[in-house]
Amino acid sequence: AQSDWSYDHAANASAHHAKYTDAEAQFAAGKELWLLPGDWNRYNVNAAYFQYFAVLQFIDASRASVYTTIRVPVGATGIAKIEIWYYCESSGDLRLVFAFSQAALAVGADYQGDASGTWVSYSGTPTHVDKILIPSIAYDALTVSPGDIWGIYITRDGAGALDTYDQNWNVFGVLVTFN
């Protein structure tokens, strides 16, 4: 018999882990994957807090980037949209560029890359939560196959003259919605 203070992990491990192919772990159309601040590798971006929220803080007046890898869930057939959620503190423009890559999760697999290739300006309403829709041109050349891995890369050119957002950019996370 088990007490409240002991647990046989070896005997019970399979009962407490979802497998990638389990029905409960599979995505249906419209399902979302929320990428939190801790899910990203950072260059000139702080893992910080803003009003007690964990955020990715892209430092003003510097070029800053984040990147991560996700696995396309079972049941996904495409990407409906990818959104960046943030707190807007300036009426100025953010200068952003996006890049994506995709590879089958298999030995010997090659990868494909795609990028918007163009710096794009975004502005929001100060003192409000806002979102930026990543243009599909940044990833529409890639295939969406369950089990594949995707690399996601976001860069802010805070040091550039066209970035007039005069604050650190505080990002709550990135929301990927699958078809």
- Number of helix segments? 1
- pLDDT < 50 stretches: 1-10, 12-20
Mean pLDDT: 83
Mass-distribution shape: globular
Q: Give helix % range.
A: under 10%
Radius of gyration over all CA atoms, rounded: 19 Å
DSSP summary, beta strand count? 12
Q: Which range does the strand content fall in? A: over 45%
The N- to C-terminal Cα distance equals: 46 Å
Order of helices and strands: HEEEEEEEEEEEE
What does this protein structure show overall?
The protein is mostly beta strands. It contains 1 helix and 12 strands; from the N terminus they run αββββββββββββ. The protein has one helix at 9-12, and strands at residues 32-35, 41-43, 45-50, 53-58, 63-71, 79-88, 94-103, 111-115, 120-122, 128-133, 149-157, 169-178. Strands 1, 3, 4, 6, 10 and 12 form a 6-stranded antiparallel sheet that branches. Strands 2, 5, 7, 8, 9 and 11 form a 6-stranded antiparallel sheet that branches. β7 (94-103) and β8 (111-115) form a beta hairpin. The N and C termini lie far apart (46 Å). The model is unreliable at 1-10 and 12-20 (pLDDT under 50).
